[in-house]
Structure formats: structure tokens, C-alpha cells
């Protein structure tokens, strides 16, 4: 993680900085701006209207940003072009829904904090639960709902009442540190000439490509290359790229072309682009992993209505071959929605099925650049936080004992506080 501040409660993280530190630098013949940016335009500090429809823009690694027609001096050294993520995708200066004054973190109102926080700090957990239930009943009366809450909604309210104080206080302290250092700022209404130029829909056909791959004829493993090493700009057939693990073994990023669009592959990395039902190439890769992070497409009504992406049933999620991919004492991290059915499934069914012992629940808290929750903390519809369930693979006793000295203890509860990316479902870094 690109940690800005670390406290007992957790971390304030700069997601944008982490992406830009991953080494998206093109070397060699494809480093010339005109050679790799036919579909993009370069963002410069002087011209905020020159924005492409992609999330990354190229800039020189040694000098100010170049325009598409500019050349890079290459005499005596290898040409390089560094790509950076477009910062306007993290320019979230205002919350999606403004919270009531008494529900805000109050970091910009010290006179309010002096009155509000001293008497709350003396409360115990029971006081907070009673207050939350009281507020909930008031909201219920105000809305004049004709039906009572179902069991799932009641379970969600009970869970929120347990974690609310931890999230509020931990986020408050981290935000205060961010404001002191200048990483966060009070100017929530700050104007940006690029703000209105952020594309509403970034077209990416990878999900559709993986869906199509299920219709491809089966590949004969004996005649097929299990691993494909990326050289220069790769524009192989989609079936070739989908049926094997792709590796970038170099110290520079590589460009790969899929369905007419260009993608950057970071240095020293590998990936399998595949539907979850076609993981055999990854199994044939014969590598074990010390950390496995899973972000399943959970089934819910919102996903069904939007038809934005396909979802997996709970049974399908259990079929992911985590035990076959995990090294001894592998740390498994699963992103979970705020639906309690899914949280119970991970802890009570999924992890035991994978021989994973649950260790902790962490929370990712989403804030604005001004340090406010992106949604009211007590919103009944959506919460400004998401859950991570951390567990460790329980293997053979002898194998576990050999590696026990290398195992890092996992804190029971931590917060990861960050400004979220405006692109759908982009999670913060955990590395």
C-alpha cells in the first residue's frame, strides 16, 4: 500500500500514488509517444481539455509531458515513456449524498467537535446501540413504511451497530492526520478544469471476451504453450491470449492489444485472462501463492437490475481452486458486500471448505478529498465502507511448522481509509 499515515486504527492510503509507483514505463521502440498513443491524447498542465477516454496518459520519465507528435531524445540511451493514471478519476471532492451536520466527521468545525465528541467519548457500546436503534425508529416513523424490515435488513443493522464506533473514531483520527499533512483539504468545492472531462463510461470488453472464450473449442494441452512471454507490443489472436498464462518478465511495462484496445501490463507480472470456469491454465502454471485476494461478483438485486456484469452463485464461488493454488500458510483475503448472508457464508462455509481459518475482519472506508464519508455512515441504503475477511490456509502440521516463523500476525481489526476511484469496483491496494 502507498501509506500516507499509519495509526493504531489502520492506514490512510493514497491509491493513485500506488498505481503510479507500479512502474508503467515503456522501453524501447514503442516508447515513442506517437507509437503507443494513437487512441489517446496527452494531458498537460497547460491544456486541461486534452483528455483521452482512457484511464492512463503518457508522460516523459525525464522531462515535462510530451504531446502526441513530440519526439523523445534517445541518443545514447534507451527511449522510455512513463504512463500515469489520470488523477481526475480520484478527484472526489464531494460526497455522493451529503450527511446531516451531526453525522459528519466535523473535522472542519472544531467548535462543534469540542461540544459533540467529549460527551460521546464517555459512552459505552450499549449507549451507541441504544442511540442507533432510537435513530433508526425515528427514520422508520418518518418514512412511514408499510412493511417491516426483513431479517437480512435487521441483521445488517445489528452488524452496523457493532462496527460503527470503530469506523467512526478510527476514520476521524486518520482524516485529522491527513488534514494536518495537507494530503486531504477542506476545499470540497475546489474547481478543477478537468473535472467535467471524466468519461462517464470507460469501454472495456474484457468481461465479454472472457464470456466468449467459453464458446471456444477446447485446447489440446500437449500441443499448446502453457506460458506466453510478452515481448514487444503483443497483438496475438484472442484465443491464444485467453488459453495460457501471460508473463512480462522484463523490468518495463508491456502493451497488449485485445479486441482493438491497448492495455498496459506492469513489469515482473503474470496474469490469466479467463472466465472463472476456465482456470486450468493457471493450475498448469504450477505456482503457489503466499497471498490470494478474491473479489467475487456477488449475487444481489442491484447487479441483476443493472446487468452490468455476471454474478456467481455461492456454489460457484466454492469451486474456485484456492487450496490447489495456495502456498503453506497462504493469506486469503475476500472482499464481501455489506449483506450479512455473504459475510456468514465466507466465514462459516467458504473458508472451512477451503481449509482456511478466519483471522480478522477489516473495513475499507471511502472518503472524499475533503475527508468526509462518501455516503452517510448510517445510510440505510448503502454504507461508505466495505468488508474484507482475512484468513490463513491450514495445511499439513509439519509443513505449517516449517513456515510458522515467517508468518506475520494479523491484527483483528484495521481500517483502510482512502479516496475511491470513480471507475466501478476498483478496490484499494493491499500489497
UniProtKB/TrEMBL annotation:
GO biological process: methylation
One Pfam short name: MT-A70
GO molecular-function term, one example from the UniProt record: RNA methyltransferase activity
InterPro entries (alphabetical): DNA_methylase_N6_adenine_CS, MT-A70-like, SAM-dependent_MTases_sf
One GO cellular component, as annotated: nucleus
Entry similarity comment: Belongs to the MT-A70-like family.
Protein name: METL4 protein
Organism (species): Callaeas wilsoni
Amino acid at each position: 500500500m502507498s501509506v500516507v499515515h499509519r495509526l493504531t486504527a489502520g492506514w490512510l492510503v493514497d491509491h493513485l500514488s500506488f498505481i503510479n509507483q507500479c512502474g508503467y514505463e515503456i522501453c524501447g521502440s514503442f516508447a515513442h509517444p506517437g507509437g503507443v498513443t494513437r487512441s489517446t491524447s496527452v494531458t498537460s498542465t497547460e491544456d486541461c481539455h486534452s483528455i483521452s477516454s482512457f484511464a492512463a496518459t503518457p508522460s516523459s520519465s525525464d522531462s515535462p509531458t510530451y504531446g502526441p507528435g513530440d519526439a523523445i531524445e534517445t541518443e545514447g540511451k534507451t527511449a522510455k515513456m512513463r504512463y500515469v493514471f489520470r488523477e481526475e478519476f480520484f478527484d472526489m471532492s464531494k460526497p455522493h449524498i451529503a450527511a446531516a451536520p451531526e453525522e459528519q466527521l466535523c473535522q472542519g468545525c472544531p467548535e462543534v467537535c469540542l461540544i459533540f465528541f467529549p460527551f460521546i467519548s464517555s459512552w459505552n457500546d450499549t449507549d451507541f446501540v441504544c442511540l442507533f436503534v432510537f435513530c433508526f425508529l425515528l427514520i422508520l416513523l418518518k418514512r412511514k413504511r408499510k412493511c417491516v424490515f426483513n431479517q437480512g435488513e435487521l441483521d445488517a443493522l445489528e452488524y452496523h451497530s457493532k462496527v460503527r464506533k470503530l469506523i467512526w473514531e478510527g476514520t476521524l483520527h486518520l482524516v485529522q492526520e491527513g488534514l494536518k499533512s495537507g494530503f486531504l483539504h477542506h476545499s470540497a468545492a475546489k474547481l478543477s478544469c478537468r473535472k467535467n472531462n471524466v468519461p462517464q463510461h470507460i469501454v472495456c470488453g474484457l468481461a465479454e471476451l472472457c464470456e466468449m472464450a467459453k464458446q471456444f473449442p477446447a485446447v489440446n494441452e500437449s500441443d499448446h504453450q502453457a506460458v506466453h512471454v510478452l515481448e514487444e507490443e503483443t497483438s496475438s489472436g484472442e484465443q491464444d491470449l485467453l488459453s495460457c498464462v501471460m508473463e512480462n518478465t522484463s523490468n518495463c511495462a508491456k502493451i497488449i492489444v485485445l479486441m482493438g484496445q491497448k492495455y498496459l501490463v506492469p513489469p515482473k507480472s503474470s496474469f490469466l485472462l479467463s472466465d472463472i470456469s476456465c482456470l486450468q491454465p493457471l493450475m498448469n502454471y504450477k505456482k503457489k501463492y503466499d497471498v490470494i485476494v478474491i473479489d467475487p461478483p456477488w449475487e444481489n438485486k442491484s447487479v441483476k437490475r443493472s446487468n452490468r456484469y455476471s454474478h456467481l452463485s455461492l456454489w460457484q464461488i466454492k469451486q474456485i481452486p484456492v487450496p490447489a493454488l495456495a502456498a503453506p500458510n497462504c493469506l486469503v483475503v475476500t472482499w464481501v458486500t455489506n449483506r450479512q448472508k455473504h459475510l456468514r457464508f465466507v466465514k462459516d462455509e467458504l473458508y472451512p471448505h477451503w481449509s482456511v481459518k478466519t483471522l480478522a475482519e477489516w473495513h475499507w472506508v471511502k472518503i472524499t478529498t475533503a475527508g468526509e464519508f462518501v455516503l452517510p455512515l448510517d445510510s440505510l441504503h448503502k454504507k461508505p465502507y466495505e468488508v474484507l475477511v482475512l484468513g490463513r490456509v491450514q495445511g499439513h502440521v509439519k509443513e505449517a511448522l516449517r513456515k510458522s516463523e515467517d508468518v506475520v500476525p494479523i491484527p483483528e481489526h484495521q481500517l483502510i481509509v482512502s479516496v475511491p476511484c470513480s471507475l466501478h469496483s476498483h478496490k484499494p491496494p493491499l500489497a
